[in-house]
Structures are given as structure tokens and as C-alpha cells.
Write a structure and sequence with these properties.
The chain is mainly beta and about 250 residues long. Helix content is about 5%, strand content about 50%.
């Protein structure tokens, strides 16, 4: 009897994958039998509320893929967590198909459809999980007894950002200048915060790297004031990747 045991791990960051590879003694090509692209998608009115994710097989075997969706709650905060979307949820996104077959060397397209345009940016994770073939038995009987085999399935999680129609950036200082608050409708990628002696420009600024996402309704702690004067923020948004500088007011 052959007992097939599969350990499933979520694809998150390269350091975790490297640790998994070291522990299990697997090489990257042996584990990554599929390419998912893009890993981050943005969907808004410009795309008619529809996006696409491509699956490309790197395996010489047929793969059966299950697709599932979660919504990321309180993103970018210590309380961040994911919750599965229920069939009754009419405000999120749906994916089609939810199961697909990926032949060796083939490609498949999974469509992402927004059911409604949100009032502020929301973020989802679309998971692609290789599963057993529908007719594959859990155990195969033979005369050689039980022989465990260990395999690894990588679950790919692609990020999907759903943008509102009204896109507004509004950042203010909170907690005596020790935190930024996002009262706008878009995620703000805070690159740097500068404390400037010159109250009218960027002269003599002390810049601190932040590199964090600040979502609508959330607060982000930043370094306490080092000097009096102007507070500047260098940032990008989900619909504009060009870095900009903004004077932040209390």
C-alpha cells in the first residue's frame, strides 16, 4: 500500500519559501510547477470592473487547480486577517472558473469580476491551489506494504485591489505628529516621512524610510518629530505609481 502525504504551504515571501526548500530538501524548480501572473491586480471603472489572472504550467503532468477568494480585513495593521467570501456576499469579487485543469505546458485565464464598486479601496486574495484529480484514490494497494511519499503543493495567493470611483487622497497628522491617518478613499504607499526646518519647502529635511501601506480609515505610527517645521510625505497610490510629495497638516 502506498500512502501519499501532501504538505501544503502558502506562497508568501521568498524567505519562507527558501526555508521550506531547505527543510524539505527540494529545489525551486521541483516545487514551483505553475506560474501565476500578475501577482497584484488593480480593478476599477477603467477595466469595467473585470480583471484577469493567467496560469502557466511548468509541469509535465496534468494539474487540477482550485480557486478561492478571501477578503483582507484591516489591511496594513497589526490586526490584519483574511476571511473567506460567502456566496451571499454581493459586494466583493467573484472568480471564474473556480476549478480548472492545467495541461502540461498550457495556460489558462481566470476572470475576476467585481460585483459592486466600493466606496473606498478594498483588497482581496485569490488563491490557486493544486488538488488531487477527481478520481485519484487516497491510497493505492500493493503487496509492498505502506511506503510514505512526501510532496509539496504551493498555494499561490494573488493580491487584487478593488478601487472606488471617487478617488481622494487625504492624509493628516495625529497623536502630536507621531502618526499619519488616511481619511481618503485610496491606499497610500508611504515611502518616506520628512521633518523639515524650512516651513515652506524641502530644505534641511530629515527623512525617515517608512515603506508601509496606509489604507482608508487606518492610522500609521511614524517616527516622533525630530525638528519643528514642515512635515512632508513621499508616497504612491494604487492608481498612481509615480512618487509624489505632500505636505501633511495636523
Amino acid at each position: 500500500m502506498h500512502l501519499y502525504q501532501t504538505f501544503t504551504v502558502r506562497w508568501a515571501v521568498s524567505s519562507k519559501l527558501a526555508l521550506l526548500t531547505l527543510v524539505l530538501g527540494l529545489s525551486m524548480p521541483a516545487a514551483a510547477n505553475m506560474v501565476v501572473y500578475p501577482m497584484t491586480s488593480t480593478i476599477g471603472a477603467e477595466q469595467d470592473g473585470i480583471g484577469q489572472i493567467q496560469l502557466h504550467s511548468k509541469s509535465d503532468k496534468v494539474q487540477y487547480i482550485k480557486v478561492s477568494v478571501t477578503r483582507i480585513q484591516r489591511p496594513g495593521t497589526p490586526d490584519e486577517h483574511e476571511s473567506p467570501l460567502s456566496p451571499a456576499d454581493t459586494q466583493g469579487i467573484v472568480v471564474s472558473p473556480q476549478r480548472t485543469v492545467l495541461a502540461p505546458g498550457a495556460s489558462r485565464t481566470v476572470r475576476i469580476i467585481a460585483q459592486a464598486i466600493p466606496s473606498e479601496e478594498t483588497v482581496y486574495r485569490v488563491y490557486f491551489e493544486p488538488v488531487a484529480a477527481p478520481d485519484l484514490a487516497d491510497e493505492v494497494t500493493s503487496e509492498q506494504g505502506v511506503q510514505p511519499r512526501i510532496g509539496v503543493n504551493l498555494i499561490w495567493g494573488a493580491l487584487v485591489r478593488l478601487l472606488p470611483d471617487e478617488r481622494r487622497t487625504s492624509i493628516s497628522l495625529q497623536q502630536n505628529g507621531g502618526a499619519l491617518r488616511n481619511d481618503g478613499t485610496l491606499r497610500v504607499g508611504v515611502l518616506q516621512v520628512g521633518r523639515c526646518a524650512d516651513t515652506k519647502g524641502e530644505k534641511d529635511c530629515i527623512w525617515n524610510d517608512v515603506n508601509r501601506s496606509l489604507y482608508p480609515g487606518s492610522t500609521l505610527p511614524v517616527s516622533p518629530p525630530g525638528v519643528n517645521g514642515n512635515v512632508l510625505m513621499r508616497f504612491v497610490t494604487s492608481d498612481d505609481k509615480q512618487p509624489r510629495t505632500l505636505a501633511v497638516l495636523p
